[in-house]
Amino acid sequence: MPGKPRTPFSPTRREFVKTAAIASAGVGFWIGNQTLAKQGVIMGPDEKMNVACFGVGGRGDTNMNQVGSRGNVIALCDVNDNDLARAAEKFPDARHYHDYRDLLEAEGDKLHAVTVSTPDHMHGVIAAQAMRRGLHCYCEKPLTWSIEEARVLAMLARRHGLVTQMGNHGTASSGFRQGVETIQSGAIGPVREVLLWTNRPVWPQGIDRPTEEEAIPSHLHWDEWLGVAEDRPYHKAYQPFNWRGWYDFGTGALGDMGCHTLNLAYRALKLGVPLTVHAEGVSDRHAETFPKQTKVIFQFPARGVDYPPVTLTWYSGGWKPPFELLDGSGETEMPGSGCILIGDDGKIFSPDDYGAKQVLYPTQKYADFKPPARVLPRVAGHHFEFVQACHGGPTPMSNFDIASQLTETALLGVLAIRTGKKIVWDPVTMRAHGLPEADDLIFRKYRAGHSL
Which of 53, 144, 165, 313, by CA, is between 20 and 30 Å from 260? Predict the structure, then answer.
């Protein structure tokens, strides 16, 4: 049974106002390490940090390997015994857990950092409880399941002076950072429209809850997998991967890929959070899963004199912008995923999910274009950037200040999809005007025994 309804997290007034101001103004693009309170433990260059990994299958395996190879993995946590056994072969001295609470209680004082690579619904509580213990945190995208959780993680990072990094790994590529610099140099002029699309979902959506019950596999700890979510019988429709399409566990295509596909435009244009969001053309609404196709329109305000208002449109499930928009780009067909930024003087097109490659067009106009001087640092890799920061290096570019804003924007799109209503967003109160029914999606209720 679900626990009692929770009241929203209560930061100090100063923290709350600062977070709201950063989110609405889009000023948290990149901060240097000097802004941190330095309460978190920063290791010397030759010292290895002790790491715990929450979720060690799939993407969690990559995060464990990349961060773990540069530190001491002393604890592993997963609800799947098979994944845990495979991880143990790589880190045989690490202790094993199925419940994140048990690991933090037993190992918290020995740790420096954690990786969180669970399904979306568990990101917030695991990361928050680790960060309250003063642990640096690498967390997969989307940063959280709810907007409140995203705000809390950003506040905890600042309050405790922690190194943080969200797992939208394209951020670390030199191509991505050059794209940000190109757009901010004014190469295509002021940008007023952005179009994004993805080939997701590649999992079932637009379906109802299964009525039959199935036996829980012997290798799966189902209660621990449910975690904060309301109790329900096991069914293979949810696990191990299809959870992304279910409201209780995932955030759909927008939550899954928005922190990748939105990233280039979001950072280059310093978008902050939108004024309004609404979903169009959704016809297959179901009580517990996302629709198969979505079109979501975000309206962003002007950000100073250099950044005019922006209309950003997101497509998924096979819907795409008209191919005519790529005229002059050299493309012969619309790719499965991509991004187009339309400026007053030209366009920039990225034909992938991560924004690591761009084409400026009309191509004839930009035939002799030379990239602007480098402004952003170049790094050896996304995980390396996190580990380097834990040893006193620069703050990661996808730290939780910016990651929480990017996640909040994606989750406002999720809110529009789920409610079917236009979201008029107040970033200070964290409320959708005139939609009190949205509160349970902004401030999640957790099952008894779990808390943020």
Answer: 53
Burial category of 25 from C-beta neighbours within 10 Å (exposed 0-12, middle 13-18, buried 19 and up): middle
pTM of this structure: 0.93
Residues 93, 195: Cα–Cα separation, whole Å: 48
Do 161 and 40 contact (CB within 8 A), yes or no?
yes
Angstrom distance (rounded) from CA 265 to CA 26: 12
**Residue 237, Cβ density class (10 Å: 0-12 exposed, 13-18 middle, ≥19 buried):** middle
> Tens digit of pLDDT per residue, the chain (452 long)?
333 334 445 555 455 555 655 555 554 433 333 333 335 778 777 788 999 999 999 999 999 999 988 899 999 999 999 999 999 999 999 999 999 999 999 999 999 999 999 999 999 999 999 999 999 999 999 999 999 999 999 999 999 999 999 999 999 999 999 999 999 999 999 999 999 999 999 999 999 999 998 999 999 999 999 999 999 999 999 998 899 999 999 999 999 999 999 999 999 999 999 999 999 988 888 999 999 999 999 999 999 999 999 999 999 999 999 998 988 888 888 999 999 999 999 999 999 889 999 999 998 999 999 999 999 999 999 999 999 999 999 999 999 999 999 999 999 999 999 999 999 999 999 999 999 999 999 999 999 999 99
Residue among 129, 201, 131, 151 at smallest CA distance from 408: 151
